[in-house]
Write a structure and sequence with these properties.
Layout: H1 2-23, H2 29-33, H3 35-50, H4 55-62, H5 66-69, H6 71-94, H7 96-116, H8 120-134, H9 137-152, H10 158-185, H11 190-193, H12 195-209, H13 227-245, H14 254-269, H15 279-284, H16 286-315, H17 321-327, H18 329-342, H19 349-357, H20 359-367, H21 375-403, H22 409-434, H23 441-463
Helix pairs in contact: 1-10, 3-9, 3-10, 3-12, 6-7, 6-8, 6-9, 6-13, 6-22, 7-8, 7-9, 7-12, 9-22, 10-17, 10-18, 10-21, 13-14, 16-21, 16-22, 16-23, 18-21, 19-21, 19-23, 20-21, 20-23
Amino acid sequence: MARDLARQLQWDELYNSVNECLTLRHRLRPPVRCAGPVGGPALNPFNTTMIAVALVPIAQATGVSASLAIWLVAGLYIVSAVAQPAMGRIADIFGPKKVYVTGLLLVMVGGLVPAVWASFPGALLSRIIIGLGTSAAYPSAMTLISDQARRLGRPTPRPLLTGLSVSSLVTTAVGPVIGGLLVHQLGWQWIFIVNTPVAAVILLFVPVWLPADNTRESAAGDSGLDIPGMAVFTVMLVSALLFFLDLDAGLNWLIPVAVVALGVLVWWGLRVDSPFIDLRMLVGNGALTRTYLRMIITYTGMYLMVYGFTQWLQDAAGYSADHAGLIQLSTTAFALVCSWIVARSTSVRGPLTAAAIALIPGALLMAFVDAGSTLIYLLLLVGVFGITQGFGSVCNQEVVYRSAPKEQMGSASGLSRTAIQIGAIVASSIIGPVFGEPATDADVHTLAWIVLALGLAGTLLTVTDKALKATGTDD
């Protein structure tokens, strides 16, 4: 009883600390307290975008082609796309804190690999281990928040939810900046090594600020992990993603493999009581399913800019890796302003509509950019995509949290991150055949028209989604 009371007071302190952190009422202690719950989820998007400015330097240093270097992106994406819903399901069943800590330990180990094996295989292995480790934090944090809010009988702590979005948002935006500085000042290995001290610092705060798993009301389901479902889902997703990652490789045989695996996944999911992917829930929960689709569309457009435009800045416009990363600060500025605005509103439909529409002017600016464009033009172009990032990050998470069944919060939130990873992989698969070596103005113009089509599709999907009107109020 005394332990439960202590945990409740601890959770109250955490809630108040994050609220203070986000409202800027204190400047030192609350941000430190935020490190435990919101620091871990920031590592995956941080690593996702930090690599963007390092692909060319890594390819040059290790003697591999640009087409092979892109697997540093693909490796983390594939692992994360599969692992995030899996880690979420494990957190639902066995407890989020255990999964959270395990993930941080994996990140620490993965970050050290290039320090002792400075080669392309070493870099790829590091990305895979880091991808597995960082996949644990976000679904675990979402599960923890849901569990503790229900246990304490309190409204869902909106500031803490916003903190998760903002931390990921900021690290996504500043990833290319930090990546460029690390590559320029310390060498490409530090793109990976930096994860070890960062994860270690976050780990220090976990015992103090994250409630123990034994404070949960109950575990999700009594049948344990759906191992066959996980295996079939992995085969389906990996087959599809490998095909899309290299459309010119002639891997057409992967299509029937993915289709057969999908059929088996559906068949199996309808036979078991607690499937890994609850198809019945997804079919009956249109708001959640449409959110996943909306995230795939908008993040495909986002990552076409993050990866394609960054590569064009270095190849065609002549910017160095660190300068190309610094240009991305414009995205950070726009995104932070948008996240600050939406954090103070209970509406999600308007901001999500703005997030989709913002891809349209961003695409038009891309369509007329060239190697001689001014720095102001480039900053404006990149900044417009920050609107999509700022509004979309906070509000899509809000919809997932309100729409997903509470006992499946981990797997549902993990699937939302899978949707983002799918968007990134689709973007990478488009950039590969479109871009030459080096990238040209015409190449980035082609990407612009694809982004425009995605913006139109995302806008249509958002404005016609009636479920968004009812989303955004506290439980």
